[in-house]
């Protein structure tokens, strides 16, 4: 059900099984399996990571487009998904200019597609809203994800990508542990009732320690870069999670999809990783 104006719909209640509202054994099994697979890919066949991440971006874009259309937001799915793949993949041969060009071209095609998707004799309904949300989705998923490709192409890029992924996991684990054990003060209860300031402090502690270790041991760089990266990733990972929570709240859903047991959909795993990819590229490219 779509929320009425001024009255956001409440997400469906989470199933019982853990204080985090997830099937914890299934979530751990899926998380470990995905984590080990990605580590092996990054260490031994790093270019394959682009194909894996590109597939995840395509599925996540489809999940979001499907949910939006269920809420009567008519995003043009075909150009959004195909163009989103161009945004992500063109970073490999052409770098940031390829990403920017593909983004601008896809945004324009989506605008034209939505303008005429009911034919030449029928004016589109909610054109401004739908195209604005389409461009937002294009920026939210493929554009932010493309910085993982740009990061991979840097010197020791596979280790840089591994570093940022480890830190996102540190943020998630630290937030979960501290939130479950000590969480008493909600951070933003109107958006995410289970997220607490204690959990945020746990994320900060785990992520800074993880940043110190990974930047020093994997990247052989100054430990203070790890501190900067750790703090930055905690902030943007938390904000990324809150952004998706608010979108799901407005759509009246609990998860974007059901592909990953204990996690939801692919987008439900990428929410904190997408902005983290950009900040990792920015920090590591600037300071190392």
Automatic annotation (TrEMBL):
Q: What is its EC number?
A: 2.7.7.41
- Catalytic activities: a 1,2-diacyl-sn-glycero-3-phosphate + CTP + H(+) = a CDP-1,2-diacyl-sn-glycerol + diphosphate
Q: Which PROSITE patterns match?
A: CDS (PS01315)
The Gene Ontology terms for molecular function here are: phosphatidate cytidylyltransferase activity
Transmembrane segment boundaries: 29-62, 98-116, 128-153, 159-179, 200-219, 225-243
Cellular location(s): Cell membrane
The annotated pathway is: Lipid metabolism; Phospholipid metabolism; CDP-diacylglycerol biosynthesis; CDP-diacylglycerol from sn-glycerol 3-phosphate: step 3/3
Instruction: Provide this UniProt record's keywords sorted from A to Z.
Output: Cell membrane, Lipid biosynthesis, Lipid metabolism, Membrane, Nucleotidyltransferase, Phospholipid biosynthesis, Phospholipid metabolism, Transferase, Transmembrane, Transmembrane helix
Q: Does the keyword Lipid biosynthesis apply?
A: yes
Q: How does it sit in the membrane?
A: Multi-pass membrane protein
Q: Which InterPro entries match?
A: PC_trans (IPR000374)
Family assignment from sequence similarity: Belongs to the CDS family.
Instruction: Output this protein's name.
Output: Phosphatidate cytidylyltransferase
